């Protein structure tokens, strides 16, 4: 059973849903989880960011659910109605209230922002001193551990996503990894191995090799997440990510088995 729990459609920043489902049907996947971006923070700065990006799954998830229900029988693949929620400790109450209402099949949780700046923003972090960048990575891990301990999400996404940013790369330490491993060992939240930049400039899965090794000391399980936004990415990343699992000597788990 191969389930990809982390893909996107045009309900956030991905391709049309029917194109993603057709690609899933033509792949080795038994199930595809549509986990579009969603931010439900009521902090002003995040509301502005959300509106300028145009990701409004908190407003459109019911429409998306209708689309999923209409389309899913046309494709020979199981479809999950999921979400990739932006996590910040200050937003926990808002996230829990929204999730209780929305009733998604499962929740992928992501720390995408440090000091409310997206971790992918190279120029911003490049302009910081080395100490400030170290502090930023510390802060990232603090939020990640808090998210895992809260058990507010089912899957912890791309746990070293800041490594994609050359200005933040290389600041993660064994202490960071150990803290995440300890938190995961006691949590219902499961991490994924994520292929979001596996075939791009960064060229590594999340978590990186040393992070993965630290997690394996606690026998942590991983779900399979290509983080695909296009049919082409889905087709290319599935075999590449399967190879990562094989090289690392682990098998992806399905959520039923772990939640
Ligand atoms: Zn993400
Ligand atoms: Zn994603």
Summary?
With 259 residues, this protein is α/β, with parallel strands linked by helices. It has helices at residues 17-25, 44-53, 57-71, 92-102, 122-126, 130-150, 174-185, 209-216, 231-248, 255-258; strands at residues 3-7, 31-38, 78-86, 107-110, 113-114, 117-118, 155-156, 190-194, 223-225. One zinc ion is lined by residues 6, 8, 84, 227.
Model description:
- By secondary structure, the protein is of the alpha/beta class.
- The protein has one domain: TIM Barrel (Alpha-Beta Barrel), CATH 3.20.20.140.
- It is 44% helix and 15% strand.
- The chain contains ten helices and nine strands.
- A seven-stranded parallel β-sheet has the order 1-2-3-4-7-8-9.
- β3, α4 (92-102) and β4 (107-110) form a beta-alpha-beta unit.
- The model has no long low-confidence stretch (mean pLDDT 96).
- The site of one zinc ion has 4 residues, from loops.
Keywords:
alpha/beta; TIM Barrel; 10 helices; 44% helix; binds zinc ion
Principal-axes shape call: globular
By CATH, the superfamily comes out as Metal-dependent hydrolases
How many β strands by DSSP?
9
Distance between the termini: 16 Å
Any idea how many domains? Answer: 1
Please report the first level of CATH classification, the CATH class.
Alpha Beta
β-strand percent reads: 15-25%
Q: What class do helices, strands and sheet pairing give?
A: alpha/beta
What name does the CATH topology carry? TIM Barrel
Overall mean pLDDT stands at 96
Supply the CATH architecture.
Alpha-Beta Barrel
Give the bound compounds.
Answer: zinc ion
Any idea what the radius of gyration is? 17 Å
Helix tally equals 10
Biggest β-sheet strands, sense, barrel = 7 strands, parallel
């Amino acid at each position: 059973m191969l389930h990809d729990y982390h893909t996107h459609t045009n309900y956030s920043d991905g391709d049309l849903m029917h194109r993603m489902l057709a690609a899933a049907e033509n792949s080795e996947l038994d199930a595809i989880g549509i986990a579009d971006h969603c931010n439900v923070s009521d902090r002003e700065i995040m509301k502005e960011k959300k509106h300028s990006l145009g990701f409004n799954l908190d407003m459109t998830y019911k429409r998306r659910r209708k689309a999923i229900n209409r389309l899913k029988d046309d494709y020979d693949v199981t479809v999950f109605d999921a979400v990739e929620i932006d996590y910040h400790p200050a937003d926990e109450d808002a996230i829990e209230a929204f999730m209780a209402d929305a009733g998604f099949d499962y929740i992928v949780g992501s720390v995408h922002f440090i000091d409310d700046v997206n971790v992918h923003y190279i120029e911003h972090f490049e302009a910081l001193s080395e100490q400030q960048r170290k502090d930023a990575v510390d802060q990232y891990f603090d939020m990640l551990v808090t998210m895992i301990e809260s058990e507010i999400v089912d899957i912890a996404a791309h746990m070293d996503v800041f490594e994609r940013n050359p200005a933040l790369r290389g600041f993660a330490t064994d202490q960071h990894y150990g803290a995440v491993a300890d938190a995961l060992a006691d949590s219902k939240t499961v991490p994924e191995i994520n292929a979001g930049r596996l075939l791009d400039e960064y060229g590594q899965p999340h978590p990186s090799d040393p992070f993965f090794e630290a997690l394996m000391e606690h026998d942590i399980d991983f779900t399979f997440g290509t983080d695909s936004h296009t049919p082409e990415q889905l087709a290319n990343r599935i075999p590449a990510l399967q190879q990562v699992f094989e090289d690392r000597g682990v098998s992806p788990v399905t959520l039923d088995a772990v939640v």
